[in-house]
Amino acid sequence: MRLSRKIIPGLHSYSLGRLAESLGIKIENRHRAFGDAEATAKIFDILTKRDTTGVIVKALKRNSGETILPPNLPKDEFDKLPAKPGVYYFLDAHGQVIYVGKAINIKKRISGHFTGEAREWNRSNIRNEIHHITYELTGNELIALLLESQEIRRLWPKYNLAQKYKTEEWGIFAYEDRSGYLRFAINQVSRGARPLISFTSKGDAWNFMWGKIKSFDLCPKLCGLQMAKGPCLNYQAGSCSGACTELEKANDYNERAQSSVDSFFDNGDTLAIVGKGRKRDEQSIVLVEKGNYLGYGFVDKNESIADFESAKNFVSFTKEQRAGQNLINSWLLNPRENELITFDKKPQTQFSRNRN
């Protein structure tokens, strides 16, 4: 199909049936393996005879990309894709967005969609529906994550099924058991549930809770991370005071557990997450106010961020705060190359029985 578009331009359709018909080739046993293969061979024979500019030879070069690209995607569009972080959009013949993705390296990521190893893409009709690719640079991975999530919910592309119908969200919940001990549980967040804090993956929630266990000498079993009968493994190793066997008084244990709840919001202060921008003289900024994600923007590197109110001038506020909040919570576990600027502290929050 790609070769036919270049060697015989101007046809209304390049499907096997229409292409064979335009070239005067009759397909015997249509949609049967032998009939379609025979027609394809005859079409290719005609292409080799009409190829006066070496299109086929160029396509056979290892680095040409012709062998992996979708049939309707112009190669020059693919060649112009940047090797930079951002969000990309696959468009159909009518200019409608059918898929949104994010990447640290846009060109490499898109190329990976079309290699032989990308089986789910090769089986999908999306290859034949891709006519154009557009993109928006973000400067870094965090902004790409936020923009991708925001765009999927704004456009609802038909091939973003995973995020369209199922947004993974894991939360940490607290409750008091019959013996009066403050316990934690990590579960997927169902509609209407109100976790103390939520993340984009179960692993992030577990890592966060393990950090609190170490910082506040909590019991892994009462934190929902160990399910063994009897005392927890930490108690056997000497690093748990025995709340899991009721050797430690509930009031003593709950004091530390409550302190850990208050600390949940230490990473949710009013702050700015500053990262690389789309250009050398630019930096990105993500704003979080009292633990709540507000939005992101870009600012000149020479611009000073004196206070939170002035930082707001550089940010576009978003309505998709819940999805962005989970991404921020997960990102703050490992900020990587980003710089954190804290403006003030969030007031501590007292746990109550009806909290969740």
Q: What would your notes on this structure say?
A:
It is elongated, with a radius of gyration of 28 Å. The protein has 15 helices and 11 strands. Mean pLDDT is 84; it is low at 345-356. The longest helix is centred in the first third of the chain and has 18 residues, at 33-50. The chain has helices at residues 2-7, 16-22, 33-50, 55-59, 75-79, 106-113, 119-123, 126-129, 141-155, 161-165, 202-216, 233-237, 250-263, 308-311, 321-331, and strands spanning 86-91, 97-103, 132-137, 170-176, 182-188, 197-199, 270-276, 282-289, 292-300, 316-317, 339-344. Helix 9 runs antiparallel to helix 15 and helix 11 packs across helix 13 (250-263). It has a 5-stranded antiparallel sheet. A 3-stranded antiparallel sheet has the order 2-1-3. By secondary structure, it is an alpha+beta fold. The chain is 36% helix and 19% strand. The protein folds into 4 domains: 2-59, no CATH class; 75-165, GIY-YIG endonuclease (3-Layer(aba) Sandwich); 170-264, no CATH class; 267-344, no CATH class. The termini are far apart.
